[in-house]
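Chain A, query sequence.
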Amino acid sequence: MRLAAPVPTGDGYLVVTAAAEPAEPEIRGLVLLAGQTALALETAFAHRRDRDRIRLLREESAAVNDRLTTVKSDLERERLIRQNLGGASHTGEPGIARALHAVTGLPVAIEDKFGNLRAWAGPGRPDSYPKQKPQQRNELLRELTRRGSVVRVGDRLIALAHTREDMLGVLILIDPRRTAGRHEVLALEHGALVLAGELAHQHDIAELQRRMRGDLVADLITGTDDETAYARSRAIDHDLQGPHRVVVIRWAGGEAGLARAAAHAAAGLGIASLVSTRDGMTVLLARGRPDGRQLHDALARRLSTMAGSIGIGGRSDSPDQFPRSYQEALLALNVRLASRSPHGATSFEELGVMRVLDTDDGGTKIRRFVRDWLGRLLDYDARNHSQLVRTLAEHLDCGGSYDETAQVLVIHRSTLRYRLQRIREVSGLDISTADNRLHLHVATRAWRILDGTP
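Chain A, predicted structure.
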């Protein structure tokens, strides 16, 4: 038979098997044995729970120690990163690139916001640095701004260097094997902050110099003594010795960005210059003899429109001549603006006899002068699709030579004689008198400029 006695702890039963039913004393002994067994089991269970608790505590303690060790390592790594990159801020962009390379072991590139390489550190610098197309560049900058963190593009980890107001450039880790981890990303993020501070500082200095240059240009074109001019120009590292010309520029869209674009365009053409703004124009004090067409083309590329006009004054060999060159540049600009081809460049030397005319009224007086002397011929040409005005202009430019004029116009002498006779008949003027020839020569020169005729 089987006899089951409950364990007092409620954890089970003590089961005894016997061939015959036990006596009463044996049952009481069985109950006593069940109680002692319960105590033994409780003690065993307690020991096991204590062992499990101790094991868990040890595991938690080890995990905490591991985390503390990791945090301590991260803090030390971050301290070294800040220390190395913070010190690099005093050595400019190349110093920042070298410091980041030393911290990460990866090649580093610094680009301006247009994608031009500013600095490189580490191996593998390409002979020809790749530059993104403007649309791709703008998309990348927008993505960096939106994400606000490091972005991977192919084998590059890229961080944006920026202030609240402006995007200044990007800092790049070259990571083709994708070995960069969180420490490298942390270093890149901190490096971007340091780079933003450096670029903002450079921008502030450049802006201060621009204002100083602008103030100097304003004083030079209104008149200042040579000694003061030379001293102030030396302070901003510009040599006023030697020939200069004043250039005035107007462009569609007004002044916004024009002065900076003009400075970059001049520098790209190898022209040393000082730049300022005045009365809605950009004023360029250019060393040497700038090529107006090249300057206009360079500005058109930067501003994405040909809708601009440039006037170039005459040569000035000392600061006291700059006001005169400025007035000449204004005259050349006004003549260009009054012409049928207002977009382009005109130099004072190109004006010829037009240099004696006043264009402050926007060209009204010049147009009236042209109409007074050439009006009948211009109307005749318009009605009959003829070329009497051009024939007269070439004849006067050739000094009255029939052979030379016929050669320039690619016509026969008899045709030229016929045209000159028609000119006399239509205009009612004797083109052989000195006074008439002078006035007609001035008028045809003015007509060429106003009409945009070469």
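The chain has a mean pLDDT of 83. Residues 274 and 285 are 5 Å apart (CA to CA).
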